[in-house]
Amino acid sequence: YIDRGTSINDRVYHAWFTVFLCRIWWAWLLTKAEYDFDEMLSWSSEDNSSQSIGKLIRRFFITNTSFQSIEINAHQLTYLILLVIEGSLPIESLQIFLFSSQTCENTLHSARATSGAFSSIVNFSVIQFLRRVQKLRY
User: Fold this and answer.
1) Pairing with 5, which of 32, 48, 91, 137 sits 20 to 30 Å away (CA)?
2) pLDDT at residue number 12
């Protein structure tokens, strides 16, 4: 998501490829019989016979939080593109590499720096922040 050189088409393709890969992986794990998991875990020193299928699946799948994050990112990217196509958002909204937290931190740091070197005011309202960001643009 942070590589500037990745086209929006590639971003959409890779986002949805990852979503469907995870969905297929999850479905495959659900269809595996318990004995298949026992065979796959035979190398483990733990006694797996008492573990439920859900616990065994969690050992072979990404965390639920990661899975939901992948899904949300793909849906958000698709929705963002649709809003740009409709004209509700400018084309600049597709600069996905600017969505990282590092960019936000740098912008906030620069906005705080506009107070001056000897000012102790580091917190400001949203309106004050927007005014400071406008100053940064010029």
Assistant:
1) 137
2) 95
